[in-house]
Design a protein that fits this description.
By secondary structure, the protein is an alpha/beta fold. The protein contains eleven helices and 16 strands.
């Protein structure tokens, strides 16, 4: 038996590992992995979902089996999300499995997309194929938390990333923040950018730091959309984020024909989401990003915009890199408050704490935020 055909100890865990290969590739589609096994547990085919418009995980696994000269009739298919049942850019995966005459489909969980939502499993059962749901459901959902957020809530999963000192400062009083954390933390941060459909900052950060907002410290098959909250269209046409690669989207609240023309000439798209006091309406912006297919929104902004997201209850997850240094007076992670009672605080729960180089990576969420 070759390594390629060796029976995995848990085929669904292997399918999840395959699904993770879709990070930075499949957006706006979910990251899905598939493993097909014979009755003796031997692997017949493996695959994961490709770029949007490309084949899905089940089709890739069927192709892999065919390339090996393996028949999948009566085989068991392990897939991390319900096989699709609709014609989108690709034909329904459930039909491909039915034509292949597989015997059983084990899926981690149901696809929330309205055109699937149980219909794929129903069509498989109607064709006489046994369907089991549930193994590794939590891990599969977590891998696609942004897809579930966009489909169910109509907005992306918002992840706020920030680097802070041990005393919680994100910058010196004069705004200097490069670099609070070390190289390992910065590289890890780019891996999280890679996960996102869009990376967002505010115009203040653009003017102060002139960031690129791209993924360059880790390999990626695609660049996330770069987004700027820029109420008065103050982004300079010379800003580095307007340079290739990738697309740039500016959200404004006030029209300015000359600035709009200059930015459009640099390839930026301008969208208007006017809100109170001449500011961008953040919930309306999130809804628009969801319509554009953004599953995960990676927020890397200054303390003022961070504070606005916190005040409006829009942050689903905090990704914080903490350096073992003290800065004393300086800018906070998010400017909101002041609070009068401790009961008014935004309470969080720890999701993960890991050392990254000489720093700590802290992940926290409001309790129950992922229950939708």
């Amino acid at each position: 038996m070759t390594d390629a055909a060796a029976a995995p100890s848990d085929p669904m865990l292997e399918a999840l590992a395959l699904a993770r290969q879709g990070v930075g590739l499949t957006e706006p589609n979910p990251r899905v992995g598939c493993v097909i096994t014979a009755a003796d547990g031997r692997v017949l085919g493996r695959g994961h979902t490709q770029q949007a418009g490309g084949p899905h995980a089940e089709v890739m696994a069927l192709r892999d089996a065919a390339a090996r000269g393996e028949s999948v009739e009566g085989a068991t298919v392990y897939v991390t999300l319900e096989p699709c049942a609709h014609h989108g850019r690709t034909p329904p995966c459930c039909d491909a499995l039915i034509r292949a005459r597989v015997g059983k489909v084990v899926m981690a969980l149901e696809d929330p997309f309205p055109q699937v939502a149980g219909q794929g499993a129903a069509r498989l059962r109607a064709a006489g194929i046994e369907v089991i749901e549930g193994p590794q459901a939590e891990a599969a959902r977590e891998l696609n938390i942004g897809f579930f957020s966009r489909v169910v809530r109509g907005r992306p999963w918002v992840r706020m990333k920030c680097a802070v000192s041990l005393d919680g400062r994100s910058a010196l009083p004069n705004g200097v923040s490069q670099w609070i954390t070390g190289a390992a933390a910065r590289t890890d941060g780019h891996a999280w950018r890679k996960r996102a459909g869009a990376v967002l900052t505010g115009v203040g950060t653009v003017l102060d730091d002139d960031p690129r907002l791209d993924v360059r410290l880790v390999e990626t098959a695609r660049q996330p959309l770069r987004v700027v909250v820029d109420s008065r269209l103050e982004t300079p046409p010379s800003a580095r984020l307007l340079e290739p690669p990738g697309q740039v989207l500016l959200y404004a609240a006030q029209a300015h024909a000359e600035r709009e023309a200059a930015l459009s000439a640099r390839g930026a798209e301008i969208a208007f989401a006017p809100g109170p006091a001449g500011k961008v309406d953040l919930p309306a912006m999130l809804a628009d990003l969801a319509r554009r297919g953004v599953n995960e929104l990676h927020l890397e902004a200054g303390h003022k915009l961070n504070g606005s997201f916190v005040r409006e209850g829009l942050v689903d997850e905090f990704l914080v890199y903490m350096a073992p240094r003290l800065l004393g007076l300086g800018r906070e992670l998010a400017a909101f408050g002041p609070l009068e009672r401790l009961e008014q605080s935004l309470d969080l729960r720890w999701v993960d704490v890991q050392p990254v180089g000489e720093d700590l990576r802290l992940i926290a969420r409001p309790p129950g935020r992922e229950r939708f």
